[in-house]
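Progress against Task 2.4 (sequence-to-structure conversion) is shown through the following example record, which the project officer requested during the mid-term review.
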Amino acid sequence: MIASAHRFRGLGSLRYVYKNGRTVRGRHLSLKHINNTHRQSFRCAVVVSKRVNKSAVVRNRLRRRIYELVRLQSDQIKEPQDMVFTVFDERLSAGSAESLQKEISSLLLRAGITDKVKPVKNVMIEQQEK
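Structure tokens generated for the chain above:
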């Protein structure tokens, strides 16, 4: 899980990112981001609607997996950014941790938030798949 310093507080910040941010779209999720000069570190939010899956357990698991992958790549983030990951495909919940990691890494790379793709190996994410 990412630290509370890297989370959004209130709807005003999210609205600002949705209104003014740039979007990078992947196969199963999209990333909306904007540079935040008022902060010294990044903030991240993950949005998974009921359209993706009716089960709160599945939605929360997806949210936790994405937060963990962002946390593991946090040292690669160059500038303070506000990022919102929006999941729009339910097949992401059934996918492997490796495919999710590749998609998040490619979104961060295409958005210009990171310089290179960092291979992430995490035992916790792999255990959830079994």
